[in-house]
Records
---
Amino acid sequence: MKVKLRNPDREVQVRGGRPVGSVLEERGIAVDSVLVIRAGELITREMRVRDEDELEIRPVISGGVR
Amino acid sequence: MRCRSCRGDAVIEIRRHHAAFCTEHFFTMFRTQVEKAIRRHQMMAPGDRILLAVSGGKDSLALWDVLLDLGYDVTGLYLGLGIAEYSDRSHDVARAFAAKRRARLLTVDLRRDYGYDIPTAGRRGSRSTCAVCGLSKRYVFNRAALEGDFDVVATGHNLDDEAATLLGNTLRWQTDAIARQSPALPGRDGMVKKVKPLHRLSELETAAYAFLRGIDYVVEECPLVAGNTQLRYKEAMNAIEQTSPGTKSQFFLGYLERGMPLFRSEDRAELRPCESCDQPTTGRFCAFCRARAQILGHRLGTDPGADLEPSDREVAQELSEEVLPAEIYARAAR
């Protein structure tokens, strides 16, 4: 499964056939710190992803001073 | 996962509420939290002219969107910081949003209007990049609000921002800064009222709102922010939140309810017009004019001691009712 990561933008291959939460855990990503986007839609951590899926894991944290 | 309200398919889980929501009911929850914030802290009234600080990020655009939907009279103000492609992209998405929503967007450009940009300021001044950026923003937003006859300045600070700031101030027991950390700061003596209507909503929620509303926002992080202290505090809070959902909201919203009254500050220095720009200050020259003079290599006034460099803490306190730890301690971000 192709996964797009941000900041900086890059792509990685991970194994599908499991819940999104497992993918996040494997990569050490806190579930509340990202949006997970599949085919233009948000998906929640218990949803299963397949090897043919393409995901974007988009961080929500912003820093600096507004 | 099912929507708490309708049992339909959920698109987002809010673990601190032990709940998940479909798109429609997430929007309802989001707007309700903004309305609650506005009402509880008497942030704004129908008919008020609101100036919204727009960065092009998820928070400011989400706030603009929801305030327009709630019927408020909101004008955006974009401040060009001169941070290469990052600023160009930020300005583009702010303009695109304004055009799509037929909203008014004002633009101030630091280089064009004040003679410097943030990367230059970070190299030439004595302040950290984040400190001079924050100082510039607060100055420009307040001045633009005064000159444009706006009633309120609104910013997109969210729950994570506020919790991280409170953590930083608490770790150092900056009691004066803690006392000023309110979601609504009343106007006084040339300082326009400032409000943070997103303070009850997390970054996850503002990002999800922006995404689900189809708002194009800048996902990229400011390239100058690496090492920022505020980010490290956020990461620390997120580590706790991961195993104890709700900690952030208990910390900050609990502070507002039970802690803030204990930190009331009576020490309010008298403000007077800056001798250079007429904006409010406690000394002869405001922190912004002192910083700008240093960056541009100018002198302020004829008195050799007039533009002596104050401490970073004095600088941050002088113009703002709020002191962010990132601005004071973020030397690593220079």
---
Amino acid sequence: MDPFSSDTIHFVSYLAILASVLFYLLIAYFNSRRYNPNRADTYLRYRHTDTIESGMSGEQLRATLMASSFSLASAIYVYIDWASADGMLALWSPITWTLGAVVLYTLRKRIYSESRIAWTIHSFLGTSYRSNTLMRLASLVTVLVFLLQVAAEVFVGIAVLTVFFGHQVPLFALCIFIGAVFIAYSVIGGLPSVLVTDFHQYRIIAFAIGVAAVILLTSGGQSAVDQVVDSFSNSFLPAGNSWIIVLSLLCLNIPLFITDMSVWQRIGATEKESDITRGLGSFSITLFLWMSLLVFLGVGFSTYFVGFPDLRPAQAMITYFSDTIVFPILLVGLIGALLSTADTFLISSVQTLIVDWRYHKQLSEKEFDPNSLEPVVHRKMVQQSRIGVLVLGFATVIAGYFFFTNLPSLLDLLFVIFGLQTTLAPIVLWGLLKKSDSRDEKAGILSIVVGSILTIILLVLALAGVSWFGISTALWAPILVLFGSSITFFTVRITHR
Amino acid sequence: MRTRNIPFILLLCIAIVLTSSSTLFAIGSGGLLNIVPQARVSLSGEQKEWAVYVHPFEGSVLVIPNDSDTCYALDKNKKHAIKIAKSSIKFQSTGVVDVPEDSPYTILKYRPEFGRLFAKVALDDGRMLIVDVER
């Protein structure tokens, strides 16, 4: 066998994928032995207890946030596709995303103090507005957004793995394989395993993208730089309808982190406030640099990836490396990106359902103090969380397989998914600014209802192929949902006081 | 500086060097190609008397059939193969052709493979186009 024949590269790729999967499972197993598996606040919150020496450090916080940001669906697949089509206009996504990280950094101390007490962002909202209805509505929004995001990751995972496996392996089997991996280590180790694997996945993803970038640069790097410079002057500044996309990105990304349950979960799991400051500060910078690199690669090498029959640009990028030894590294990195996002959203969804729905009454009676809970309650919570991870995990895998092949472009879909999350922005911000009380309950509930109805309408219109001013209604979602829910919240608040 | 950051800094240095030294002369970007008289072309095992041109720096290959208006180019940088009309190709002088940047082309489904003395690609109809050179 030739040392670099396609057989060799495929064989090495199989080994690399299996080794990485085994590595994640071992991490989960050994990590689960480090702490008391029957403590619900450890399994779901990675809290400092007598069995865990410390919470997350600043570096771990940055790594886990970066690993989730390297979502295969939104940050890699869509960025490469989008940058290939629209050039440097796509750079507005990292710019606005980083602005969102700066907003998170600004509000970090309030989020830290609140997340140390409340088990979820929704429990915090329930306490701030003294309303269980509002808490439950908000938790439904989070669960829906997160599970759809997991399904989107599975969908993209199929697209990536199909390029590698060809059509020799059925798509359904690929779905089950992808799902089984992140479900397995989440079931075994809960949030601690998810956070520790994220830390390693971030390093693997960064290394893989770095190596792939270097290889691409050997094949026309100077021309790619010229292309990027040209694109800067031609397409970076929005013109015509592009302003709507930039406005939509601003509405989508600026409130994204502060309304994200999984971000609250991880900030709360960090040991000290100084670690949060360090972790979130470096996260803002790292996020901008890495995501911009992806856009630069998409723009600079767009002519390499566009025009293949039956292949999206992101898929063509993977086949570009298929005859090089970089292929196994890239494949493991991309799978890491998929797993690190899917596991985070899955465990957050389960935590939300268990804490805000199943055990809310018991927890609120004990003022959310885990030490006041009976050991049997802890055990039951962990048990039911494991079942939740298993059931919801496989349900989203099946949803990813069946639904997403029938939907329009993934970019449109992601705008709708995250557009729904912006409906929480006014109530979360008002709560964090400590201006909310029980008199705002009605305003909060109505703002969520209006935002959700708008999302459903826009999704239906997008599926019907409707566009306004030449822009798909899906891309309007963040603007209309954020404005709709904010106007409702403040109008009702003023009139009902 | 932390030790674990060294691989990334090293990668960054390599990237900067490679970026500044690697310019793309791919087919369709205006590069000139020279004829290779000793090259042989076969299509699914059948020998063809087709002309073969190669880019002097990057090794991309252009195959011009004598019995059809469709030419095939195997781009070594972009690792893709394209179909291009013979009328788009400018024959500059004896043995030298130019593929202008704005020439319309279609990318083939399969990526080409390049060896030291051969290049090959599966055409969309499944036939294998092989170009090789005897030393």
